[in-house]
Amino acid sequence: MTHQSVQRSTLANLQVNLSTMADLQAKMSSGKKINVPSDDPAGASDMLRLRGEQRAQAQYQRNADDGVAWLTTIDTSLQTTSTTLRRVRDLVLQSGSGAASVPAREAIAVEIEGLRDELLQQANTTYLGRNVFAGTSNAGVAFTVDNTTDPATYTFTGAANATVERQVADATTVRVDADGAKVYGDGAQSVFALLDTIAATLRTPDGDATAQLGAIDARFETVLTELAGVGARQTRVVNAQTSLVDAALTTKTQLSAIEDIDLAEIILELGMQEVAYQGALGAAAKVLQPSLMDYLR
Who has the most CB within 10 Å: 57, 280, 281, 290? Predict the structure, then answer.
């Protein structure tokens, strides 16, 4: 074996040691076991899949958050609507007690008209510029009123059978709007027209509007039914949010197991490689001692 062979072999071994140290230092500085796909092709493939799952979970979480906001807005509006209808019923009962004078019935009629306007406002409730009772319609309002007619005409302008939905899981889609025409009615069958009829009846000589109690109760039951449906859908979305949090934690744990280093192990291994490298340098210095003749050659 020639002197040059020993020299090349020693330098090659030193280069291997140095390359191993550089790789360990790169892992320690980045905190990742896989910095390029060639470090672990199978692990890199698993990382891409898990990161794709993370992006999907993040989107589902945004959808769920938006869905909860829609349903909460609807729930608040329906709660106010039910309270308003209770007040209308109480006023109608009060007017039909037989003790209500003409001025008293007029005052009740005025209050009922104010409650009608409040119901119309609730029916046109919006969230982020979208009407929650109009489906996918971009009309801006779910109900319009034409006061040029007598009685006034109320029209549902929402998109019929065009629901707003949010996907909160791979196979789970939840409706987040409400059918305004079902809740408040449309045209002459709307709750607004009903309150106009009650107010007009109270202004007649007889002034007995108790015949409308059945219609009020029917509309009230419709609101309660819709409230129950909204509550059930809201529960589904909240449950989906909980599942998404758990899934995100699981995915993060799996990803960490693939790509994150064991810092204590890396520090120990790097220390061992440094000792080996220093030993190799010392050995090479003793084996490769050039003489004057080596320089002259």
Answer: 57
